[in-house]
């Protein structure tokens, strides 16, 4: 009991420290957190669910993603290479045989963004794959840098000798014992694919020869090996390709026995080893702090000038964690206006326009979301907002969510104009973004620009183009005196399908830059902010 009490404050402080470190908004953090934990960009939705037993024909997307991460890291050599996305320039090498790797590249290139370069997607893919199949939660630290070309070769192949494999893992930063662990952690998912070009001598049948008897991330790779029945094609295949047999037996089966006798040992060892694998980056690349989910957070904030000349604020409040879905809960949005006069004493509040929930996120998490949309006269505008939460819904215990004390700030110097912001599918321009800039006394915006993020599907990078916006002329003229409209045409090749992803607009007043929210392009999965076709009037 005394121990329990002593530990409790530590755990609590740790959680609070993680949460306190975050202040909304933090665009780069928010983007990654939402795609990683809330599974909102469609990235994590790609893998099909891990079913209990392999059927021999359905590939495991999770397995393909995990193998991809290893193959990207496997050429690391004392600070050169590692998780840098160079694998996607190296897919024609014999050591990277297998359609799973090119399938993964084709899935990932549609998710490149300023905040999620390819090597971060590869690392996040491994984290998601392991978590979705029931494996441990592995910290994800963003910040990897995309290579510009292929790097050295050196991915281990099943025909290698034990000495060659031990040397390869040592070069990658893993001991002989850790090699056994990392291979077992990888080969708990998926199997050896039979095709003429892949490994027809290892899998002489058809379809996929699984490494163990489940598709889950579990210790069956070890229990099957130690206790049988063992079905691992890299143990039972032709001797020359029995790399798992050579590696697993290399310490007299000590490591594999420890995994077979304890699912917890397997799980925690894999969390550490796969964590180190994805954090193996070239010297000079500094990873940021792990992206942890925020239990309560605003998302999809958007301030817009409507066609009627009013100001609309949209925001969704997300509640995230294990078992958060509660249909009795009442969440209310409150806001202060520009001068805090019409909304004095918390007079302005609104109920959600819709509620959605997701009961089955990875690692036992759930999400309940409350979407708000409120419209006010542009003169009144907004300066900040906050929420109250009543878990029981009877008004007795109401807590406040206010960004750690300072409320969630609204910058109304810059706003979106949805009526004139859209994707275009012909001509030399691929989008038009219209921005409303506040007229505030005598201060004028010195320049207004839009940063567009385009997917370069050949270089596999997010190409950023900054386009200056010009003062709107008819019909792109503001209907109200509080705002001036600026319009930018984003150049691009309309014939490349889904080339563009998202936009950020900003206006410079004196020395201060005001940046609007990230707008999703029509081809991004979350094309929530701008329309698909442009109306010219
Ligand atoms: C000596 C080291 C290794 C060798 C020789 C090796 C070899 C292989 C081979 C031959 C396949 C079949 C691929 C195919 O048919 O497309 C495979 C699959 C796989 N490997 Fe490894 N591997 C090694 C280490 C690792 C490591 C360290 C990991 C990850 C931590 C890993 C993860 C995977 C996964 C998940 C699959 C299944 C892919 C699928 O089902 O699509 N491997 N490996
Ligand atoms: C290790 O386990 C494998 C598979 O059960 C077995 O074939 C092999 O003989 C074992 N090796 C040792 C040294 O016990």
From TrEMBL:
GO molecular function terms noted in the UniProt entry: heme binding; metal ion binding; peroxidase activity
Signal peptide: 1-21
GO biological process annotation, one example: hydrogen peroxide catabolic process
EC annotation from Swiss-Prot or TrEMBL: 1.11.1.-
Domain of life: Eukaryota
Keywords: Heme, Iron, Metal-binding, Oxidoreductase, Peroxidase, Signal
Domain Plant heme peroxidase family profile: 120-190
Top-tier EC class: oxidoreductase
Keyword Metal-binding belongs to the record: yes
Pfam family, one: peroxidase
PROSITE patterns: PEROXIDASE_4
Keyword Heme: yes
Family classification: Belongs to the peroxidase family.
Record's protein name: Peroxidase
